[in-house]
Amino acid sequence: MEVRRAQSGEILAGLTPVSHYFGSVPAEDTVQRFARVLRPERMHVAEEDGKIVGGASAFEFQFTVPGVIVPAAGVTIVGVLPTHRRRGILTELMRAQLDDIHERGEPVACLWASEETIYGRYGYGMAALCGDIEILRVYGSFRRRPEHGGAFRLLSHEEALEVIPPVWARVAAETPGMFARPREWWEARALHDSESRRDGAGEMMRVVLERDGEALAYALYRVKMDFESGSSTGEVRVLEALGVSPEATAGIWRYLLDVDWLDRLQAELLPVDHPLFLLLEQPRRLRFRLADSLWLRLVDVGAALAARSLEGDVVLEVSDAFCPWNDARYSLDGAKTTEDADLRLDVSDLATVYLGGFTFAQLLRAGRVEELVEGAIARADAVFRTDRAPWCPEIF
After folding, report:
1. What stretches of 38-128 adopt beta strand conformation (E)?
2. Residue 236: Cβ-neighbour burial (10 angstroms; 0-12, 13-18, 19+)
3. Contact present, 303 and 309 (Cβ < 8 Å)
4. 210 exposed, middle or buried (CB, 10 Å; 0-12, 13-18, 19+)?
5. What domains appear along the chain, each with residue ranges and CATH number?
6. Is the pLDDT reported for residue 192 higher than 90?
7. Fewer CB within 10 Å of terminal CB in the chain, N or C?
8. Residue 188 CB-half CA count within 13 A
9. How far apart are CA 51 and CA 14, in angstroms?
10. Tens digits of residue pLDDT in 142-169
11. What is the pLDDT of residues 207-259, one digit of tens each?
12. pLDDT per residue over 75-97, tens digit each?
C-alpha cells in the first residue's frame, strides 16, 4: 500500500472511492468540473497493486475567520473503498494530507463531514451549525415591509457570472466560515446547472436586487411545480440568497416568499442566526431543523490564534495527538509560552470555539475544557466572542 500525491490525469481515479458510495462512476462532466478547481497535487491517493482504493483532496481557499481572511484547505473527496476498510488507510491519508497542509503554511483546514464520528480522531472539531426550513407562503408575512429602494431582475447564466460574484465577495469577507469563489468556481460549481443536480425541479433561476446599477442581493433557486385537486402544491427551492445589507437581505427573501402560484418555500444550509427569525411574524412556521455544518482543524495553532488578533490575558494548554507540533501552551497572540495555563483543552475543542460558533462555557458544560484558573472561561469567551454565527452556504 502506498499513499502518494495524485498525478496529472488521475482525478477520475481519485474520485472513484467516494463515488462508489453514490452508486456510480463519476461522469466525464463531473471530472472536468473538479479538474477546474482542484489541483492534482492537492489530491492524495492510496494505491494497492496499481489500483487506487482511497483518496483525500483539498481545495485551496481564501477562508474568512473572525476579522481576517486566511489561506485554508477545503478538504473534500475523502473515502476508502469498502473492500479496504479497517486497515488504517484513512489514517494514512489524513496523515499525508495534514502534513502537506502544514508544509504549505495553511493554518486551518475545514470540511463538511458525511459521517460526523470520523474526523474528531484527526483533530477536527464541529465549528458551525446550520438549518433547513420549509414554510408555507401563507405564513410568510414580515413584521414590516423591507425598504431597499431597488428593483429585481432575472439574469441569464452569462449575466449572473458578472453580477452575482461581487455580492458573494462582500458577504464572504465579513462572515466567518465563508470562502472566496474565483470565476472557475462559479462556472464549475456555484452556477453549474446539470440535470443531475435538479432533483425533479426546474432549471436554476438567478435573480438580482439592484439599486442605481449596484447589485445589493441575489438568489439562486429552482421551482418544482405540482398540483393536488387542481391547486398548486409547488415549491420554491432556495439554493442561495445573500444580501450586502439588512434591507437587501430582507428584500431578497421577500421576493422569494412572494413568487406567485407556489405553495411553499424550502431552503437548506441557513445559519442559526438567520434574520428570517426576526423578520417573520410567525418564525416557528419556518420549521427550522438543525444540523452540524463546518468542521474545522487548526493545523497550526499558533498561526491560527495570531490571525485572529485576540487581545487578552489567557494561556491555553493545547493537546494534539495527531499533529504533535501543536502540543504546547499558547498566549492568545499565538506565541508558545512556558507560563502556567489558564485553560486546558484538546485541539479539536479549540477548533470548535475558534470561529465563534460555540463558547468556552459550552465546552465546560460538556466536560470538554478544564478551567485551571477561576474566571478563565469568562475571560476567554470575552475575547473569542463574535457578533455573528459562522456560516458556509455551500457543501464542498
Report:
1. 43-48, 51-65, 68-80, 108-112, 125-126
2. buried
3. no
4. middle
5. 2-106 (3.40.630.30), 130-290 (3.40.630.30), 294-384 (3.30.1050.10)
6. yes
7. N
8. 17
9. 10
10. 999 999 999 999 999 999 999 999 999 9
11. 999 999 999 999 999 999 999 999 999 999 999 999 999 999 999 999 999 99
12. 999 999 999 999 999 999 999 99
The three cell numbers locating residue 160: 449572473
CA–CA gap between residue 282 and residue 286 (Å, rounded)? 8
Kind and range of the H or E element at 218?
strand 214-224
User: Which residues form the catalytic set?
Assistant: 119, 396
Which of 177, 202, 118 has the alpha carbon at shortest distance from 356? 177
For the range 278-282, what are the long-range contacts, defined as Cβ-Cβ under 8 Å and sequence gap of 24 or more? Answer: 278/143, 279/142, 279/143, 279/250, 279/253, 280/135, 280/139, 280/140, 280/141, 280/142, 280/143, 281/141, 281/142, 281/143, 282/139, 282/141
Q: Measured between alpha carbons, how far is 65 from 333 in angstroms, rounded to an integer?
A: 15
Please enumerate in sequence order all residues whose Cβ is within 8 A of that of 298, keeping only pairs 6 or more positions apart, or say none.
Answer: 107, 108, 123, 304, 326, 347, 350, 351, 354
Entry pTM:
0.95
Q: How many CB atoms lie within 10 A of CB 370?
A: 14
